[in-house]
Design goal:
About 65% of the residues lie in helices and about 10% in strands. The protein contains twelve helices and five strands. Helix 7 packs antiparallel against helix 8. It is elongated and about 80 Å long.
Length: about 250
Amino acid sequence: MRPALTLAALFTAVTFSAAQAEGLKDMIASEPEVFNQAVADYLLENPEIILEAMKVLQSREDDASAQRDIDMLAENRDAIFNNANDWAGGNLQGDVTVVEFMDYRCGYCHKAFAEVEELVKTDGNIRFVLKEFPVLGEQSVLAAKFAIAVRMIHGDEAYKKAHDALFAMRGDMTPESLSRVATDMGLDPAAILAKAETPEVQAVIEANYALADKMAINGTPTFVIDDAMVRGYVPLDGMRQIVERQREG
């Protein structure tokens, strides 16, 4: 009976008003086999009704998902956009803010890296915020801790240089390879690696994990562009379109 009842639900969703659908409940209860067979026959003769019903249901699900994102953004707005533990660059007085949850070991984050840099540079009116969100294993966590430690010791400019260098790296991220990054930057690698293992650094990552959990973010890259949630990589032209839609309100 389950397949027939599922088809009946789709059929009812498209072909009947809410009041009519309510009236059908009595028929389904009193003569379920007759009703289900009638629906099955109808759908075999008109299979396009299934596609129409699926479009209706998908549209409803998309609307519900978009509303959930809006609600989550409203509830967590300060933590998303104004956390003092996050690096912020671009135009700090920009009219649109782009927040990226990223992981240095994420292939799509690597793909997005140059395009997001180009977006921020060519637009000129975007505030850009980076959130360390290491989700791809021990090396990801090690790299994120290193970057956060650089910022805590040496400030925002050094952090951005370290961030860029980590995305330029090839091969494994180990204490040795990260030490070379620090040395190339003219920084003391021992001090940075020691700072990276402190509770203060771990707390930044844990806070980002907690925020991501509240917002149903489980992958990278994920972007928040003002009131829009973008889960996954989007090409440069697509990002520009999203930014413009946010400006238009």
